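Saturday, quiet lab. Running sequence design on the structure tokens for the scaffold JK sent over.
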């Protein structure tokens, strides 16, 4: 039988990574799970070590390094990843990319041998049709994003997670904001109030205005607080530089000072004492 030279055999199987089954059982956000999978694409097969930069990870996941740091803390707390800070041996003032070690064995089973599989191998695919998205999985992923926005807002306002609930009005505003703006815009918007004198209590009523339904009330509010956060965001140390503890200098209010911008408006900005020494 003569083979047609123009006949090509195609497959939809491409590069892939293996995710340990125990990771699926963790209460990870979908974003942290994606980051673990991305790190696995860089990891050495023998020891699970990888060293991509935070900037590279952020670009691959279309997010910011702040989000990468937040998801890394989640993975570290769950026992999925260990992070080692590195410096140049010839120049200790120069930081290198972090060294990540992916754990492929659950922390509680490190001394237990992997049991022999008794089931049969997964049969090969008989077609090349694309996988149809699962509506339930899409819904769960959106729910994770909503919870992340709510969690960032709780952290920003300092409210007690046990006493502050994600009720329907708050969830409705988050859903609306995510439907109209990128996820990072919404995350920045719920933190922007920190840089407004009026909303932090410097007003006639001496009242703090930072409820979630206010910050995400409409497009004007979302864009105002988003831009406010990005303009006056806290000073961030250089990539891969470890966090440095600081003490208020006595001239500021817990690390914050009042500044006047080019428009003559007063804003809150980080005090120079917050900079790493």
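Result came back. Writing it out in full:
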């Amino acid at each position: 039988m003569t083979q047609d030279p123009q006949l090509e055999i195609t497959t939809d199987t491409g590069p892939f990574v293996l995710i340990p089954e125990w990771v699926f059982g963790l209460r990870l956000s979908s974003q942290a799970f994606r980051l673990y999978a991305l790190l696995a694409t860089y990891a050495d097969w023998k020891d699970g070590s990888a060293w991509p930069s935070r900037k590279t990870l952020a670009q691959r996941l279309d997010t910011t390094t702040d989000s990468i740091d937040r998801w890394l803390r989640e993975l570290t707390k769950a026992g999925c990843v260990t992070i080692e800070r590195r410096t140049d041996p010839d120049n200790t003032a120069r930081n290198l990319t972090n060294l990540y070690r992916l754990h492929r064995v659950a922390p509680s089973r490190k001394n237990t041998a992997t049991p022999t599989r008794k089931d049969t191998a997964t049969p090969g695919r008989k077609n090349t049709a694309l996988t149809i998205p699962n509506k339930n999985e899409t819904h769960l992923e959106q729910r994770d994003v909503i919870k992340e926005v709510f969690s960032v807002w709780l952290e920003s306002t300092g409210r007690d997670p046990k006493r502050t609930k994600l009720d329907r009005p708050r969830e409705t505003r988050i859903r609306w904001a995510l439907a109209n703006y990128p996820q990072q815009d919404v995350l920045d918007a719920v933190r922007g109030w920190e840089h407004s004198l009026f909303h932090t209590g410097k007003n006639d009523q001496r009242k703090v205005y930072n409820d979630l339904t206010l910050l995400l009330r409409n497009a004007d509010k979302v864009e105002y607080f988003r831009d406010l956060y990005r303009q006056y965001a806290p000073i961030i140390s250089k990539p891969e530089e470890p966090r440095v503890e600081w003490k208020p200098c006595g001239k500021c209010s817990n690390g914050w000072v009042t500044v006047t911008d080019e428009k003559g408006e007063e804003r809150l900005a980080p005090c120079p004492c917050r900079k790493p020494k």
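Notes for JK: The mean pLDDT is 77. The radius of gyration is 24 Å. Ask whether to fix the surface positions before the next round.
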